[in-house]
């Protein structure tokens, strides 16, 4: 037995080498110290190639600054999303004292259960980078090297004899300067030093891969004694499969090193590809900068390999044999490597290990096959490394670095080539806390209408809470604009998503109004309510529907006369402006300055009568216009207006003032108007008289919605405006739209604007736009959508949008992120409410 075996050095790999943890520093038992930083993921749109290339340059620049430290370690770690905490936070904003509470409770619990059931592991990827501040590798002080080596032997000997050395007091203070230097080197990546608690958990997590655990308990466990850090049972099953168990939970762990890469690694983007898999894959890179000279430098190894290839080629020439293509390519690559050395490009060697976990050996093998197959398509080769599993397990611990004994699976390349892995990026859209509405789509090609397959193929849930848009202290937001645009052709899923967002957000502490000009929701909601009442099922849904105040504006019912009369529900200049716009819309070409002056005078007179307490309305304006002292043109116009209004849908807006305006004090209101004949969006045909009347009513409704949003600054209000395209059809409509937008942030009013064309979202005289957009497919406007969302127009991005199937849209959030998502209606019982003529997503579940 060797002295090393006698001292137990052959077992050194099989135990934690960490001696102490403080802030983002770890002190190992050999005296070396490493600093750990969290690297915030840069959200890059999946088809934004320019942004990816730009970010790779940032990463290259940052990592170049670590050459003096020789080693660094990049870790991409799948971390549980902690759904319970996510939905507990959301529940704080639920209106538990209203009729929505029972359904809201079922939805929140159902979301958590269904996500865990369908995804198994609900996780997100986080990045960290580890830099050794002091080790045998980087020390330039020979005495320091000898001191560290001596300490390692001494500590092992003392441990064998039953003694131990205490952790040096305030050891971490000696590294303040080195930490500051690393902070500066990595500043372009916006790194953040871990806290002690985060550091403890990250190191403990290495031993808990795939296991069930209580995060707080595990942190306390290690903080009680650092010796508990590696307290798990590790054994082999079936000879070469690692099995880890702890407190009754067990996991099978497979460590798969990357053994070969494609010759051309440009645009490899390995880290991005790994994130598209449905199961979590930890990716760990142990990286070492190459020495510029010496027997162990990368250049020396390359020269030795080149000499061997030269000999092989000369032997082939002498025997008059054909040169193998692989030999020629290898010779070329080695010569290219030499040139890069000559140009002083940073060179690195690295060990990349992918770590997979599973609950059973069968599941582990299945994940092996999927991972091997997926990466093989990229030209990336993995090996099972059966004989090296334990070595890889401990070699990939935090604080480890490559040494001269690490020869297998090492990949030499330039630092620039290394950055082609595309580190520190993620694909994310939506809010951290919110209602689950779907999943990020992982592919550009079409799902051929099978949106359920698109959902099943993604591991990336999308959450949203529209009310976060104008809230302060939400990190990363690029706009506080609270308004939402939902666009797309009929049948694409636009109406389905709209009603899904309406239902979920009606659970919150807010008042919500849905304008339904197609008058389709009340009938369906009452139908569903009747079916459940008859069957005695789904009481929570029954109570929810019963809590909704359905208001139907039917011009055939005298009760509704004048509920949108501008003189009844508006005052002052607003009443004058709306009345002027409505009369001008009705008169059209028959209007002229004389007539306009006449009816404006009459409006002023009627408003004064109202101010004195008299009940008056727009019909009194027409009466006054017909008085004997007015000019003939004004009298004729008053007579014409009275005749146009009589027995038509305009009775809603022109009345004698007897009825009051609409009252909207209920938490949830669905307001529908029957008898509307709205022209089709983007129609080039002249409007019929009934269509003109319908638009006039909609103008009045727009002003009413403005009043809804302005009434209480302290309370959030959400306005869903379906068929809202008409606002941009006239100057008056555009002015109303701008008013609705302007009251948004200051009055806590959120407008959800549903229309077909992206052109309806902006006008030349309006720069406010929409903070959030859901863009469903409109085949004639693909380039226009790309322009609006500020996405570079390429064949790739056009294909990305053109290939969207039913139920898919581009989600542009308030953080400036854009991704193609598949909408997921998780609850069939709620989806019954959306079974209207327009939506085709009745079977989403």
From TrEMBL:
Coiled coil: none
Pfam families named in the record: AAA_10
Cross-referenced InterPro entries: ATPase_SAG2001_prd, P-loop_NTPase, T4SS_component
Protein name, UniProt field: DUF87 domain-containing protein
Organism: Streptococcus cuniculi
């Amino acid at each position: 037995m060797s002295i090393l075996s006698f001292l137990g050095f052959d077992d050194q790999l099989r135990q934690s080498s960490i001696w102490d943890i403080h802030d983002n520093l770890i002190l190992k038992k050999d005296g070396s110290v490493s600093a750990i930083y969290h690297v915030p993921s840069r959200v890059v749109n999946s088809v934004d190639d320019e942004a990816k290339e730009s970010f790779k340059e940032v990463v290259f620049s940052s990592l170049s600054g670590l050459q003096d430290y020789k080693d660094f370690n990049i870790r991409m770690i799948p971390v549980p999303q902690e759904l319970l905490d996510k939905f507990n936070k959301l529940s704080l904003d639920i209106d538990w004292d209203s009729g929505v509470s029972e359904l809201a409770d079922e939805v929140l619990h159902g979301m958590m259960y269904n996500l865990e059931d369908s995804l198994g592991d609900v996780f997100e990827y986080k990045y960290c980078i580890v830099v050794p501040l002091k080790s045998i590798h980087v020390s330039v002080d020979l005495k320091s090297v000898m001191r560290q080596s001596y300490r390692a032997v001494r500590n092992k000997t003392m441990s064998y004899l039953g003694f131990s050395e205490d952790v040096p007091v305030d050891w971490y203070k000696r590294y303040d300067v080195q930490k500051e230097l690393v902070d500066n080197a990595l500043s372009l990546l916006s790194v953040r030093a871990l806290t002690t608690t985060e550091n403890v958990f990250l190191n403990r997590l290495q031993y808990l891969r795939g296991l069930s655990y209580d995060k707080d308990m595990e942190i306390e466990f290690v903080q009680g004694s650092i010796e508990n850090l590696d307290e798990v049972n590790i054994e082999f099953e079936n000879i070469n499969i690692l099995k880890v168990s702890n407190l009754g939970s067990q996991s099978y762990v497979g460590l798969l090193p990357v053994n070969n890469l494609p010759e051309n690694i440009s645009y490899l983007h390995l880290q991005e590809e790994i994130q598209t898999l449905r199961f979590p894959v930890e990716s760990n890179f142990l990286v070492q900068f190459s020495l510029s000279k010496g027997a162990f430098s990368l250049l020396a190894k390359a020269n030795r390999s080149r000499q061997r290839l030269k000999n092989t080629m000369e032997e082939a020439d002498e025997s008059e044999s054909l040169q193998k293509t692989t030999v020629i390519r290898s010779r070329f690559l080695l010569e290219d490597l030499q040139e890069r050395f000559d140009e002083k490009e940073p060179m690195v060697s690295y060990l990349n290990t992918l770590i997979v976990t599973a609950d059973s050996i069968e599941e582990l093998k299945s994940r092996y096959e999927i991972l091997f197959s997926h990466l093989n398509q990229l030209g990336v080769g993995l090996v099972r490394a059966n004989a090296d599993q334990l070595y890889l397990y401990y070699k990939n611990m935090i604080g480890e670095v490559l040494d001269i004994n690490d020869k297998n699976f090492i990949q030499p390349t330039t630092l620039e080539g290394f950055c082609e892995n595309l580190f520190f990026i993620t694909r994310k859209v939506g809010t951290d806390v919110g209602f689950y509405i779907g999943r990020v789509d992982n592919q550009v090609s079409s799902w051929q209408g099978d949106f359920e397959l698109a959902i099943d193929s993604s591991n990336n849930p999308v959450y949203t809470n529209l009310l976060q848009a104008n809230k302060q202290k939400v990190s990363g937001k690029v706009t506080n604009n609270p308004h939402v645009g939902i666009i797309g052709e009929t049948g694409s899923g636009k109406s389905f998503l709209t009603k899904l967002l309406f239902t979920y957000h009606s659970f919150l502490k807010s008042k919500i109004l849905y304008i339904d000009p197609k008058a389709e929701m009340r009938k369906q909601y009452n139908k569903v309510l009747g079916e459940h009442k008859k069957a005695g099922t789904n009481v929570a849904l029954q109570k929810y529907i019963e809590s909704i105040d359905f208001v139907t504006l039917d011009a055939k019912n005298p009760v509704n006369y004048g509920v949108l009369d501008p003189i009844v529900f508006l005052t002052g200049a607003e009443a004058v402006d709306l009345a002027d716009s409505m009369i001008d819309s009705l008169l059209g070409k028959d209007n002229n300055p004389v007539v306009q002056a006449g009816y404006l005078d009459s409006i002023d007179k009627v408003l004064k009568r109202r101010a004195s307490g008299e009940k008056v309305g727009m019909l009194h304006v027409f009466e006054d216009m017909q008085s004997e002292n007015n000019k003939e043109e004004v009298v004729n116009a008053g007579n014409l207006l009275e005749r146009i209004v009589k027995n038509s849908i305009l009775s809603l807006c022109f009345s004698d003032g007897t009825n009051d305006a609409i009252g909207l004090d209920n938490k949830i209101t669905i307001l529908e108007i029957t008898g509307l004949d709205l022209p089709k969006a983007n129609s080039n045909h002249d409007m019929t008289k009934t269509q003109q009347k319908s638009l006039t009513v909609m103008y009045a409704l727009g002003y009413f919605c403005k009043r809804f949003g302005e009434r209480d600054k302290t309370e959030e209000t959400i306005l869903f405006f379906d068929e809202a395209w008409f606002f941009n059809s006239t100057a008056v409509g555009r002015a109303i739209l701008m008013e609705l937008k302007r009251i948004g942030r200051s009055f806590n009013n959120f407008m959800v604007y549903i229309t077909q064309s992206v052109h309806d979202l902006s006008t030349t005289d309006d720069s406010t736009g929409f903070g959030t957009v859901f863009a469903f497919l409109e085949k004639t406007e693909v380039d226009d959508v790309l322009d609006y969302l500020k996405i570079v127009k390429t064949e790739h991005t056009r294909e990305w949008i053109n290939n969207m199937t039913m139920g898919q849209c581009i989600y542009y959030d308030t953080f400036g992120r854009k991704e193609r998502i598949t909408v997921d209606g998780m609850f069939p019982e709620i989806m019954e409410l959306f079974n209207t003529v327009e939506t085709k997503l009745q079977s989403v579940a």
